[in-house]
């Protein structure tokens, strides 16, 4: 495969990473576009996943504010990016070190720092909108082990909206397709508009929500998921929310 084919295959995951780092689908996608422009302008462009993410990381560093100016939790810190690269994107530590431009030992230290941030972050209430009982139980267990309180569950859009209005959770975990054929995305749009809470989508087809279109989600967990991926994405959504307050 050539550069164009490889880039097309990896583009959804570049968007996923940039969106999670910035907390914005619009800003994350803009950084990805800048990274692609830089890649194309290079006489000897990267042609594999590691090279694409290394190029994107350079664009992220250029776009981020001065870390010295950040107060409190920094959702885009190198420790957060190290955790997202390994837990969400599945890079081994050695590749994450290449992407971040540091040694593998430092990546290990950054990941420990990010894990410590998880224990310091505020515990909160979580609502799970998922029509597969085993998936709902598994993800609820993972979230509970992080110290959060799963306050309710739903399997349809109307059920989710009604229960979230009553329970007022601080985070929503949402499947895209629900039991009665209703849309989890529609439910999430209503709930976020009314409650102003972050949403983490759970889907077997993440590529369909990473096309670079308006209104696409910021945070995505792909099925089947690993516990470390759930922990990394959920904590990133909550830290972004805390940093914005």
- The CATH superfamily of the largest domain is Response regulator
> In whole angstroms, how far apart are the ends?
45 Å
What's the number of domains? 2
| Assembly of the depicted chains | single chain
Indicate the radius of gyration in whole angstroms: 18 Å
Describe the 3D structure:
The longest helix has 20 residues, at 3-22. The chain has 245 residues and is an alpha/beta fold. The chain is globular, with a radius of gyration of 18 Å. The chain starts with a helix and ends with a helix. Helix content is 58%, strand content 10%. It contains 10 helices and 5 strands, in the order ααααααβαβαβαββα. The protein has 2 domains: 3-119, Butyryl-CoA Dehydrogenase, subunit A, domain 3, CATH 1.20.140; 123-244, Response regulator (Rossmann fold, 3-Layer(aba) Sandwich), CATH 3.40.50. Strand 3 (171-175), helix 9 and strand 4 (199-203) form a beta-alpha-beta unit.
Topology:
Elements: H1 3-22, H2 25-41, H3 49-63, H4 78-88, H5 93-100, H6 104-120, E1 125-129, H7 133-145, E2 149-154, H8 157-167, E3 171-175, H9 184-195, E4 199-203, E5 219-222, H10 227-244
Parallel strand pairs: 1-2, 1-3, 3-4, 4-5
Task: Identify the notable features of this structure and list them briefly.
globular, 2 domains, Butyryl-CoA Dehydrogenase, subunit A, domain 3, Bact_response_regulator, alpha/beta, 245 residues, PhyR_sigma4, single chain, 10 helices, Rossmann fold
How would you briefly describe this protein structure?
This protein has 245 residues and is α/β, with parallel strands linked by helices. The protein has helices at residues 3-22, 25-41, 49-63, 78-88, 93-100, 104-120, 133-145, 157-167, 184-195, 227-244, and strands at 125-129, 149-154, 171-175, 199-203, 219-222.
């Amino acid at each position: 495969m050539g550069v164009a084919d490889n880039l097309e295959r990896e583009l959804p995951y570049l968007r996923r990473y940039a969106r999670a780092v910035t907390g914005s689908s619009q800003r994350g996608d803009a950084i990805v576009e800048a990274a692609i422009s830089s890649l194309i302008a290079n006489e000897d462009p990267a042609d594999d996943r590691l090279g694409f993410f290394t190029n994107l990381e350079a664009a992220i560093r250029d776009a981020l504010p001065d870390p010295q100016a950040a107060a409190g939790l920094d959702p885009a810190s190198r420790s957060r990016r190290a955790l997202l690269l390994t837990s969400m994107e599945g890079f081994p530590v050695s590749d994450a070190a290449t992407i971040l431009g540091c040694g593998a030992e430092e990546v290990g230290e950054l990941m420990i720092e990010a894990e410590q941030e998880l224990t310091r972050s505020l515990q909160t209430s979580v609502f799970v909108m998922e029509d597969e009982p085993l998936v709902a139980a598994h993800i609820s267990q993972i979230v509970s082990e992080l110290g959060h309180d799963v306050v309710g569950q739903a399997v349809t859009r109307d059920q989710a909206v009604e229960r979230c209005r009553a329970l007022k959770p601080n985070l929503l975990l949402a499947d895209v397709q629900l039991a009665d054929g209703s849309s989890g995305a529609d439910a999430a749009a209503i709930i976020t508009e009314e409650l102003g809470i972050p949403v983490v989508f759970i889907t077997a087809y993440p590529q369909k929500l990473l096309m670079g279109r308006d209104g696409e989600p910021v945070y995505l967990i792909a099925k089947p998921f690993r516990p470390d991926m759930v922990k990394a994405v959920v904590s990133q959504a909550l830290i972004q929310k805390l940093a914005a307050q």
